[in-house]
Design a protein that fits this description.
CATH topology: TIM Barrel
Distance between the termini: 36 Å
Number of strands: 10
Strand content: 5-15%
Shape: globular
Number of helices: 17
Bound molecules: iron/sulfur cluster
Order of helices and strands: HHEHEHEHEHHEHEHEHEEEHHHHHHH
Length: 417
């Protein structure tokens, strides 16, 4: 498996792009996490992995989407994006997740990315706007990987994404990237209607196509129409985790996840501080589904350096503290009531256009998340295990965490979850 993956990396991708990945994302990414760890020792948090929503608009209308995609378009101005990247680079960052809405609807997306040749960007997209010409441009840039979402068969995709013909347009986008040897990933938000994608045949198909990595998110019921009936049961979440661990040791494709350390213990990247989110209006949020913000990256609203905005944010700091003292899973799903109290305490403004995020939080039912202490599945593939031990774990965030106080174990029997 290791040899087959190495062969794929060496012979199925453009060497220049592979070098950019290894250097900008691999070596420099590791250095940025090491700097993050050093800062933590002094009690300072600045996330090495920032996720930036550069636009709210989208051509699709997915079930359970929490972004105000139908509201007036807000496209992050290049000067705001550039300054944010430069100030994050001052802190040693090189990786940025570019999210939306649909990032390729940003009229100046390439203008955002092009100047930052020393960084690495992962663009979360439905692939519909990736033409051959755009894929060629991505290849020329070399430091951008599209992560293209596939949500199931043709029928399921149309149903999940609120339009017709979604899958074939997505596949065209993937094809354009692969024909141009762009380092390409495919992700799926796994829910009740697309569980059939979690199988070996699907991975084999991705490998045959030339896809280099994949990511199975677990569907989260958020936003004004959370569609909670789509949620996986705890047993299905466990099966998914088992599948990922098995396939990492078997298939020559990289499989990403963000919610487990090498020993299979759950974690929340926002609680550990390794990652936070910036919305299209510039608001800094703990993560994309916590749509409340007290700080902004925009200098016209707050003139401080990005470092100080993160370092001095009482809202972010209290969020991390609350999240890690409550559960190793997702506080939004498990204890929305506590999150609502925190938002009230800090009078954190609702960062949505619809202005109903607080009411949505108040109406949420408690659900299970990735935290399942009786079902921890350690990595079988030693490379993942090793890499996570050094560069993706809880970084001591849950030291002294009392499992018996956590909400998740009690929830595992909750049939609604
Ligand atoms: S709060 Fe929940 S959704 Fe946000 S990063 Fe943590 S686990 Fe993920």
């Amino acid at each position: 498996m290791y040899l087959r993956l190495l062969r794929r990396l060496l012979f199925e991708t453009d060497k220049r792009l592979l070098w950019k990945l290894a250097w900008n994302m691999g070596v420099k990414g590791v250095v940025s996490v090491e700097r993050f760890k050093r800062r933590l020792k002094h009690g300072e948090v600045f996330p090495p992995f920032l996720y930036v929503s550069v636009i709210n608009s989208c051509n699709l209308r997915c079930q359970g989407c929490w972004v105000d995609v139908a509201a007036k378009m807000e496209a992050m101005p290049p000067e705001v994006f550039h300054r944010m990247v430069r100030e994050a680079q001052d802190m040693g960052n090189t990786f940025f997740g570019v999210v939306g809405g649909e990032p390729f609807m940003h009229p100046r997306l390439f203008e955002l990315l092009e100047p930052h040749t020393g960084c690495y960007f992962q663009v979360f997209t439905n692939g519909h706007f990736i033409t051959d010409a755009k894929a060629k441009r991505l290849r020329r840039l070399g430091n951008v990987t599209p992560l293209i979402s596939v949500e199931g068969s043709e029928i399921v995709s149309d149903q999940r994404r609120g339009k017709s013909g979604v899958l074939s347009r997505t596949m065209q986008g993937i094809r354009a990237c692969l024909d141009n040897k762009v380092f390409t990933g495919v992700c799926t938000s796994v829910c009740q209607t697309n569980l059939d994608l979690v199988n070996e045949q699907w991975l084999d198909r991705l490998i045959d196509m030339g896809v280099m990595y994949t990511w199975f998110h677990v569907y989260r019921p958020m936003g004004p129409d959370g569609s909670p009936d789509l949620c996986l049961t705890p047993a299905q979440q466990l099966e998914l985790r088992q599948f990922v661990v098995e396939m990492r040791a078997k298939k020559p494709i990289i499989i990403i996840d963000a919610y487990y350390d090498g020993e299979g213990q759950a974690l929340c990247p926002a609680a550990t501080g390794i990652s936070h989110h910036i919305n299209p209006w510039g608001g800094i949020e703990p993560c994309p589904i916590v749509q409340f913000s007290r700080e902004s990256i925009r200098r016209d609203q707050d003139n401080r350096h990005l470092r100080d905005k993160f370092r001095q944010s009482a809202f972010l700091s209290d969020f991390r503290e609350l999240a890690r003292s409550t559960t190793r899973g997702c506080i939004v799903l498990e204890r929305p009531d506590l999150l609502r109290d925190l938002v009230d305490k800090h009078q954190a403004p609702d960062a949505t256009v619809r202005g109903t995020a607080r009411q949505e939080l108040a109406a949420m039912h408690t659900r299970t998340s990735q935290f399942n202490p009786s079902g921890e599945i350690p990595e079988k593939n030693f490379l993942y295990r090793l890499a996570k031990r050094f560069w993706f774990n809880d970084f001591g965030a849950y030291e002294g965490f009392d499992h018996s106080r956590a909400s998740a174990p009690a929830l595992l029997n909750d049939r609604r979850a």
